[in-house]
Amino acid sequence: FLSFLKQRDGVPLEAMNAIFQPCRQFFYWEETGGELRRRKALTGHVNIKDGCNIMEGPHCQSIMKKFTTKTVIDPETLGFIDQLLPTEGSSCTTCGPVSMFMCHVPLVHKDLRV
User: Which of 43, 44, 35 is nearest to 72 (CA)?
Assistant: First the structure.
């Protein structure tokens, strides 16, 4: 089905670029002690084995819309961000700068061997 990914020209890279689009800005508002605080996801602990963290979550534009309207994100979305980019690590993670991408193919994260 996806044998084109084995091609040696630029086809695999172009396919991956079409499927995974970068979330260029990932800002959000968080309320702490009664004050709004602007947050930006810059770093996180990443799984060493996989080299990435993969999760199903909200569309990145919905998070940016809340940011532009100065709306505090809901606890479910905050939980998603905390799981995707944990601030505390373990022996199976490494901390560093992150880039976030959103997949445009439903459920592909369930089996990345596709």
Answer: 35
pTM of the model: 0.73
The Cβ-side half-sphere exposure at 80, using a 13 Å CA radius, reads 16
| Rounded Cα gap, residues 29 and 56, in angstroms | 21
Torsion angle, alpha carbons of 63, 22, 79, 88, to 10:
-140
Q: Over the stretch 56-93, which tens digit does the pLDDT of each residue have?
A: 888 888 999 999 999 999 999 999 999 888 888 888 89
- What dihedral do alpha carbons 47, 58, 81, 60 form, nearest 10°? 90
Q: Check: CB of residue 84 under 8 Å from CB of residue 43.
A: no
Instruction: Please state, in angstroms and rounded to a whole number, the distance separating the CA atoms of residues 60 and 10.
Output: 27
